[in-house]
Structure formats: structure tokens, C-alpha cells
């Protein structure tokens, strides 16, 4: 069975569908424009079916006026769809006996393409001459060159018929191994060949064209599919008329395709082999939808190959092309189904009660961002209106469903969660659609039926109000919103909503009363300002400033900041708390606010009220911020007479309120005069302030009798000076008063103005807060550019005079400063320091590298280091040893005398070891050991066992240090010195540690002999040393096992190497040809006795005389060496010399050849790059230097060792040099103990 369809109009469903019945030769025609899709025509008859066979392919032209039918026996017929008349019957268009697999109309109604079961492609040209209809056939591709399985001509929509590329009438063809794009007009030409390699023979090639927009131009794109990969090829025409095809991004799938079609320029529909429909977005490669269509019961085409029954050679792909084919009826009908049933996807989600997903999909339709949507083209406003009406229906349904499915019983939290999941979605989409009428009428009425739903609904409005997405609300909803937030005690949220609302939506009386009752001053000011353009009345009400005082007591600073913010906004021309004041009202508002602030008394003030209550209140609240507001206002004032009067009047009021009143702190008074100093320092200043007032402020701030708020008064005065107020004072008097008040920062400020930097050092040293900053100050002055030599010299001299005071302050920082800037004065500083402990701290910071000072900056005589060691022994003896390890400059003899003087034995032992007197260091440690043992014995006798454990730990620690000393230096001592350097120990456990460590360096018989000769172990039972002897035996067994294992590994390695060498030597070679690669004659053509046959490992064969004629052979050390002529043609200038040992191992660049007789085939090495003679000589020398003991010598020594007695193996370590073993070699010794430490 075959079927096809064609639509008449792109924006409607009017079209035609035809299906051919297998075996009957009849075609049924239906009209899609008919609501019932009734049968219009039945073309053909059973007689035609008996003569031509079944219909195997169908095609309808663009205007649905002609139908082409291809038959299984190869005939082609053309029908008139208007009258049902047979117009043509074509029997000679292609080879007889081959079925028509595909037949396609092009955009030219007189041109069609057909593809037969032989894999050939033909062009059918329809003509009418003298009233006779004819058909001319032309072969476009022969099946003998490859079977074409699929064809697809390029079709253009009506609006694209004028596209430049349509004049070529492009045709895409897919064979089993490649794709071809050819042009039928104006002449036949192949524009592109795209090989894609061999794939599964049962997979079906698929082709589909569509015009897409890429880089601001519309061009056709060809989709080619086979298996699980889709290739996209973009076709373009350049200015010269040539066509270029470029590859685009591939699409890799996890299923095999059997059909493919485009829905629009970015969406495609794919059908896989298990009858699942996949909707894919081409650009993002996202799978938008998957539909199971097995229930549709698809009908596939029949196979039409007579050779199948007789076992003929027909490829599986060609069979599958026909048997898996649908024409285009499946996807074409599906495409129109998308157009007709646009809401089917939404309805499907609604049936599954996925209302949120349904709304999201509908909104994507509304925005035009939905993918895989066809049929929504046309006027945008009309489309949006249709979708909006549909969404309104869904929203109402959603609201009804939410109320019906509300849980009647259970906790209130369950009901709240239920509505919180739904109500925000409804509100969101109503506002997106701009349907506030729907939201506040029908939806709100439905939600009001449930109190929980109503509360959730009102709370959902808050974020939209705060983001200014919802400016207007109906009065009833606004009233309910205010009451709801008031009941929930969410007053801050309520105030935030009020200031964002349109004033016309508010009940002003209700809002004002609510704001006064709950102290919502921001909202109240917003209502007065925006609703009535009144900026004074809110502040005139007595409650407002009384509220400020109340807020100061019980609420946060941020909450009571609103008066300042309100005045700041008004004076800057901005509305409070949001927006801007209308431009025509800005001057009026500024004047009104100023007049209000400088009122002598408030409207509802009492009789005893102080003057200027508003200014006084704001100054008490935050003096600095209020003055900043005034400063910003002065910047905006125009320089006219009225503005100057306002400024001077405000300044006079400020001075009167603050200077004549003792309620203000020094900080507040200082802020005022700092403000005044900044204003007076301006170039266009018009203010006048009596200078006497500044003197009064200076006296007030620098009063030495008042110790309270010292740092605050100093900081205020400093800010006043930095703001330009210094011009109001006499500098000498200012410095004098600052010194009396101990205002050292003020002194520093003044000295810096006078460039007296040395005096600033005194300021730092006297200031208890900033003392340690003096080091950075001195370093910056002495090292940074910008200061004169005299200034630096004065600072340097001042610092040197106070060096002892600096050391007392911080020895480490002082030492760092001395090392950088006073390195030549160090000896003088040391001489002048009388305090020995301070000298010790200074030297430790200066000389100890661990303190972080760069020692390269210091060049001192050794006596200074010895003086430091002397002081260190006195004040910190426990750190002497660690310090000596890192100290670089000291004389050993003098330092040893110092440590011995203070009886620091460990330090003395370290210095003796460093000097090279190992025996002396050992005796010192031995003396310490004896002393500790005697102390333990004495204390045990005096006090019993109470302190024995601590003393025993000290003895063990000393013993381990002594052992470490012996181990570090044992490699520099002979056998007698090693034996003499062991400790005769009376404690068994400690003796065991000594002897176990001795076993790694001294022969075991010597150790046993020493034990047996000792008078302590010469008496008593042998069981006392049983553990020691067993330990020695374990050590011997371990070393013997280790040696045997190493011997076995060496033997195995030697055997493996010899086997590989033998295999390489005896390997045969097979030549690639039986002739010489140079003379091209067979190798048997010569009988000369001197001629040999040379075969290389690469397979090339030569006569030896031919190689000699090409200079590919040379004699080295009596042996002939050869090089392959063909493989080394690029290295003809290379030398034919190489190391013989490398060639034997097969690592050389050319073979080793020696005479084996006539016709012998020598073994050759693998070819590599050549080495020149200098490189070969250097490599031989490197091998000789690194050559170790030969394997034969090792085996001989091992065999001699096994034939000897077991004790003979132990005696190896102390034999004489004439009979020394290879195992005594330093490179072969087994180091079972840690390596000794090298001397410094």
C-alpha cells in the first residue's frame, strides 16, 4: 500500500489525500477540506491492477490537480483529480520489470522524478504537442553505480517561489554510501557529494528539505537521517551563482529512525522503529515531546522486488526503503493535526489535572516562544486574544477545582499549604494577562468563600505591589488587604504596600487613622504628600515630634530616622519615601520646609517650651546627619539674596541652640563647628561666624581639667582642623593647648604642617594608644621619597636618641628597624645599653634567624654572637641548643668554653660533634648519663620510688640522644672506635636498646664477645642475655633471607635477559619481494662469491654490492654495517657508524651484518634516527661510568658465599681489603639503619 497528501493552502486544512490499495491497482482520493473527509474519487480498476500490479508510489502536484501513480511492475500513470480522467500511461520511462519505489513532483508541474527498485533515478518531463500528451525520460543516476534508496526534490512555499535557489530545481538523492545534491536546471549539474560511510544495511536513509533562517538569511536546509544520526546540510547560493553546501550540527539519538519530516524551520518530527513519535527542536536538540502511536496501527508499504522470491541480490537497505515507507501521509496528517488541534496538548495536560503545566504551555503560545507549534501564524493581537480567552477559562476552572478539592478536615497548616500551591499561580497569570478585572472580581469572589483562601490571596498581592507590577486595587480588596495585615500584625508589610499603591486606590481617612494608631509615619507622610500635596501638615501635628522622642526611647535608630530622611528628600526635591516631587512644586516645598524648621515655637507647644524646638529635636537625635542634610541643601541653593539670608539665619540658630546650651556633648559641638569650618572654607562663602566662638570651642575641647571623653574631644578637634578650621586659630596657641590636653594627634597634625617630623616621634612615644605605630612612621620617613636629606637626618638622629625606649616598647620591631637603618651603629648601641636583659632581648631579635630579620643586612664580629650566647645561657638556657643549630656566625672554641662554663652538656656535646671531636662529645653525653643514674639512685634512696619514673624517662631520653650521636658518626669511625663508643650499661632495658642499635653497624660475633667479656654478664645465669641473643639471631635470619631473595631476583633477571637475547639473534626475517630494491633484479641472478643477500627487518631486500654502490655499507672494527637504502633515503648524509652493543640489543638505527656465507640472512635491528660519531662516543663513555658489577661477578660471589660456613657471611664486614667482597662495595651495601646526618 502507498499513500500521499498535498495541502492547497499553508494556513488552512484544505488539501487532498490519496491511498493506493495493494493488489487492486486503484487509488482513493479524499478531501481534507470536507468536515467528514468523504471519498471524492476512486481511480483505476481491478483490470489495471491485474495488468500493472499494486500501486507502489503516489505523488500529487502543488495545486492538487494531478496525481502520479507508480506500480509494482514499473508502469506510471497520471490522473486528473478534478475529473478523474486518466491523462497518461507511461511504460517506457525506465527499465522494465523494476518497481517504482518513489515518484515525486517538483515545483515545476511539467517535471517529476522517479526512483525504481534497481536503484536508478529518472527525470520525467511532461509535454503536450499538437494536443498529444507525451513524457520524456532522462536517467539521472544509474543503479549500477550504487543503489539510490531515497529521493527528495526541493519544494518552496508560495512566498519563497522567488528565492534565487529555486531556479536550480535541486534534487537530493541518498544511496547506501553517499548523498548527492544535483541541480536539474538550467542544466544537469552535481553540486555536492557527501560520503557518510557504511552503516547497518537494514537502516533506512531518509531525506527532508526545509527553508530555515540562519544569520539573517533564509536558505534551504537538507536533513539526512540514517540509523540514529541526523545530519543537517545548509545550502547557499553566492553572488557568482555557485551553490555551496555546509555541514551543520549533527543530532545523535538513542533510537533508530524510520521516518522524518519538518514541522517548521526549527522543529522536526521523527518516528523510530518502535513507533514512537519524537518532537525535536533542531537548534537546542531538545526533545520536546514523545508520543506513543502504536495504537494508530500504521500501515506500511509492501515490498516490490521479484528477485526477493527467487533469491536475487537486493540489498536490505533498498528493501527497507520500500517496506518501511509511509510516503508522507503520516507526518503530513500529523502536521495538519497540530494545526487543527492546536489545543490538544493543553487538553491532554488538563485531563491529567496538570493545570500548572497547561497554563505554562498556553502562556508560551501567548508569548510566541512555544516550540513545535504550527497554525498560530497571522495577526499577533488576534492570536493573543484567542489564547487569552482560553487561559481565562483554564484559570476559572483552576479556581473552582482548588476550592472543591480543599481538605475539609485537618490542621489549618494543611489548608494553607493547599492554597499556597495554587493561588499564587492564578494571581500570577491574571497579572501576566493584565486581567485585573478578572482577578479582583470573579477570582476574588470565589476565593472569598473560604477564609484561608482569601488570606492567601491577599498575601499573594504583596510582592506584586512592592515591585510596582500592581499599582491599582479595587476599594473593597484594598480595604480587606489593610484589615488582613492589621489582624496579622504585619504592620511593616502593610506600610510598604501603602507607599507603593496608587493614591486613588486608597481610602484616605481609613489609611490616616490606621497609620496614626500604629505609628506608620512613612505611610502617613506618603498619603499627605501624594494625596494632598501637603508637606507641612504631617510635621505640624504635635504627635509627630512627640513621636520622635518616643521612638528614640523604645525603637531602633532606623525607625526614628524618618524625620531626617523626610527633610533631606524635601530639600533635595524628592518625594518621601519614594518618587519625585513635581518640578513646579520643588521651590515651594523647599521654602515651606525651611520656614517650618526655623519656627521659634511649635503650634501646640507648652509655655515653658524652649526656642526652636524642631531644630533642637533633630540636633539631639543625630547632629552629624542633620548637619549633612543642611550641607547638601546649601549646595543646591542658588546664590541669590533669599538663599543667603536663609543660610545665615540657619547658622545663627544653630549657634544659639548649641553654644548657649550645655545639653550637647563635645562631639555634637565639634560637629557643628566642623560643619561651619567647611562652609567658611568654600571660595564663594557668604556666611559670617564670630571668630571668638571658635576660640571658645577650642577652650572647651582642650580643657585639661575635663578628662571625660578625651578621645572623642580630640577626634572632634582633628576633624575641625582638617575641614579648614585651622585658619580660625593661632597655631602656636593651638599647639600649646593640645600638648596640655595631651592631644597628640593634634600635635602631629600641626608638626606635619610645619615639616617638623622629628617632633612627631615624641608624639607617638607619648601617645599610649599609638605607641607601636612609631616604628612604621620612622621606617616610612627614612625609606620613602619626598623628604629632604635634612628632614631624614633629623628623624634618624631622633630615633637613635630614643633607641632604648624603642627597645623597651618592642625589641623585635626595634631590632628590625636597627638592622635596616642603623646597621653601622649596632656596636655603639650594644655598648650604650646598660640593662643586660634588654640587651639580651635585642641581640636575640637581631641575631636569631628565627625572628625573621634578614641576616645579610648585618655584619657583626664573632664576639657579638658569643656575647649573645653568654646572655642566652644566663636568661634562657633551655633554648641554647636550638639556637646554636640555627646560629651562623660563632667561633666553636669560645662557644664551647661558654657552654662548659654554664654546664650545658648537651650544647657542649653538639659543638664538639660539630667541631669533629666525636669522642669528646660522646664522653660528655656519657658523663651526663652517669650523673643522671647517680641522681636517680640517690633520690630513690632518699625518697623511695616516687620520682624514679621521671628520672628514668630523663635517662632514656639522654640515652637515645647518645645513640643518635653514635649512629650519625659511625660511618667516620673504624671498628675499634665504634666498639669503644658504646655505653657500659647497668640497666637491662637500656642496654638492650644500645645493643640492638649496635647490630646494624658492628659484626654480631664482636657484640657477643663484648657481652661475654663484660664483668656484669660474666656472672650469673645465661638466661639474662637469652633475649639479647635471640634478637641477634632474628636479625641474622632477616639479613640472610633478604640476601637470598635478592640473589634469586638477580638470577631470574639474568635468565630473562639471556632468553631475550637468544630469541632476538635466532629470529628469521621474511622479505616483502624476491628482487633487489636497487637493481630491481631477482636475488638469484648473480653467482659472484663476494655477493651476499641482505634482508632488513623492514622487509626490504638488497644485494650487498648494490648497497655498497649506494654507500649504504661501511666496515667498522672488522665488521660490515649496513643501512636500508629506501627507509633512510631522507638521511643520505648520515654516518654509517654505531655502537656495537646497541646494535646487538636491537636499538640501533641500522643492522649489524657479518659474513655468514652465500645467501645468508643476517639479523637486523629496528630502524631509528642516526647518531653522529661524537654522540656515539659520549654515549659509550656514559655507559662505562654507570656500569655496575657484572652479573657473573655477582653469581661467583654468591656461589662462594653459599659454599662457606654461615659465620663466614658475617665476617665479610670486617675482612681485610685484599679479600673484600663485591657486597662491601658502597653502592651495594644494605643500609638497614637510617643514613647518618652530614656535617654542616
From TrEMBL:
**Keyword annotations for this protein?**
Metal-binding, WD repeat, Zinc, Zinc-finger
Domain of life per record: Eukaryota
According to the UniProt entry, its GO molecular function terms are:
zinc ion binding
Which PROSITE patterns does this chain map to? WD_REPEATS_2, ZF_RING_2
- What residue stretches are annotated with the RING-type domain? 1076-1128
Q: Which CDD domains match?
A: RING-H2_Vps8
Q: Where are the WD repeats?
A: 48-89
- Tell me the Gene Ontology biological-process terms attached to this UniProt entry: endosomal vesicle fusion; protein targeting to vacuole
Keyword check for Zinc-finger: yes
A GO-annotated cellular component: early endosome
* InterPro entries linked to this entry: Vps41/Vps8, Vps8_central_dom, WD40/YVTN_repeat-like_dom_sf, WD40_repeat_dom_sf, WD40_rpt, Znf_RING, Znf_RING_Vps8
Q: Does the keyword Metal-binding apply?
A: yes
Write out the coiled-coil annotation as residue ranges.
none
The family classification in the record reads:
Belongs to the VPS8 family.
- This chain's protein is named VPS8 subunit of CORVET complex
Please name the source species. Answer: Strigops habroptila
